[in-house]
Design brief:
about 20% strand, SH3 type barrels, about 50% helix, about 300 residues, MscS_channel_2nd, cell inner membrane, MS_channel_C
Length: about 300
C-alpha cells in the first residue's frame, strides 16, 4: 500500500499522528536514543559478562578447585551479580527509577542474611579456604582437634575421613577459626623417636648401633642427615632422641619399622632397654632386694 493510499484510507488517523509527532518529536527522539542505548548496554554487557566469567573460570582452574560444586557456585554467583548490574544500568538509561528497587533488594538481602547467618558465615569461610588453600583434597590434616584425610571441600563444610574410616563433617566457619595442621603439605617429614637405654650402656656404641639399624632402610633420606643424641637423663634410663627424615607418604611405615629394627639391633648388641624397678632396703639387713615389675606383679 502506497503512502497516497494510506492517506486516502485513514485521513483522520494520519492527521492525528502527524500532529502528535510534531508536538512530541523531541521526546520520541530522546526515548528512541535511550532504548537504543539500553539495547547496546544489554548486548555489550552480555558479551563482557561472558568474557569475565571465562576469566574467572580460568582462574578457578589454575587454583585446581577441589570441589566442582564450589566452582559452579562461584561462577553462578558472579553471573547473577554481573547481570543484575547490567539490568539496573539499562533501567537507569531508560529513565526507570532504580533506587527503590535497590532498597528492596537490600532489604530482602538483609532479611535473608539474618535468617541464614550461620550458613552465610560458613559460605564466607569457604571463600577464604578456597582463596588461601591451607589444604586440598587428599591432604591429611588436623582441624579443630580432628585428624583425617580431606575428601571434599564444599560450599558450607569440608569432609574428613579419619584413620578408623569414619566421616567427619566440619563447618567451614569452624575450620577457619581453628588451627590447621597439614601433614601432607611438604614432600618430606621428620620422624621423632625417643629411645631409652640403661645407664650401664656405652653411649657411643648405642649411637652407632641405632645409626647402623636405620641406615639399612632405603626410605630414610640421606639429606637431611639423621639426628641422634642424648636428650635427657631420665629416672631409669638415658633417653636418646632419634630423628630420621623420609618422604611424607612413607612416614608411618618408617616410624613403626624404625622402632622394630632399633629394638632388634639393641638386643643383638647386648644394650639393655630398662624397665621400671624399685629398690627396697630393709633396716637391719645387709642385703638389698629389688622389686621388678613383671606382668603386673612385683617379684623379689
Amino acid at each position: 500500500m502506497t503512502e497516497e493510499a494510506i492517506l486516502l484510507a485513514f485521513p483522520n488517523e494520519v492527521s492525528y499522528f502527524n500532529s502528535w509527532y510534531s508536538s512530541n518529536e523531541e521526546i520520541v527522539f530522546q526515548h528512541g536514543i535511550n532504548i537504543i542505548s539500553a539495547i547496546l548496554i544489554l548486548v555489550v554487557g552480555y558479551f563482557n559478562v561472558k568474557m569475565v566469567l571465562k576469566i574467572i573460570r580460568k582462574l578457578l582452574n589454575k587454583r585446581e578447585m577441589d570441589s566442582p560444586v564450589v566452582a559452579a557456585f562461584a561462577l553462578g554467583l558472579a553471573r547473577y551479580v554481573l547481570f543484575t548490574i547490567i539490568i539496573l544500568a539499562c533501567f537507569g538509561v531508560l529513565g526507570v527509577e532504580t533506587s527503590a528497587g535497590v532498597v528492596i533488594v537490600g532489604a530482602v538481602g538483609l532479611a535473608v542474611g539474618l535468617a541464614m547467618g550461620s550458613s552465610l558465615s560458613n559460605f564466607s569461610a569457604g571463600v577464604l579456604i578456597i582463596s588461601f588453600r591451607p589444604f586440598k583434597v587428599g591432604d591429611y590434616v588436623e582441624v579443630g582437634g580432628v585428624e583425617g584425610l580431606v575428601e571434599a571441600v564444599q560450599v558450607f563444610q569440608i569432609l574428613l575421613k579419619t584413620a578408623d574410616n569414619k566421616m567427619v563433617m566440619l563447618p567451614n566457619s569452624v575450620v577457619t577459626s581453628s588451627s590447621i595442621t597439614n601433614f601432607s603439605r611438604y614432600a618430606h617429614r621428620r620422624v621423632d623417636l625417643l629411645i631409652g637405654v640403661s645407664y650401664r650402656s656405652d653411649l657411643q656404641k648405642t649411637k652407632q648401633v641405632i645409626c647402623d639399624a636405620l641406615s639399612k632402610d632405603r626410605r630414610i633420606l640421606k639429606e637431611p642427615a639423621i639426628t641422634i643424641g642424648v636428650l635427657e637423663l631420665g629416672e631409669s634410663s638415658i633417653n636418646f632422641v632419634v630423628r630420621p627424615w623420609c618422604k611424607t607418604e612413607d612416614y608411618w611405615a618408617v616410624y613403626f619399622e624404625s622402632l622394630y629394627y632399633i629394638k632388634k639391633a639393641l638386643s643383638e648388641n647386648g644394650i639393655e632397654i630398662p624397665f621400671p624397678r624399685t629398690e627396697v632396703k630393709l633396716a637391719g639387713l645387709t642385703k638389698s632386694y629389688s622389686l621388678k615389675l613383671k606382668e603386673g606383679r612385683e617379684e623379689l
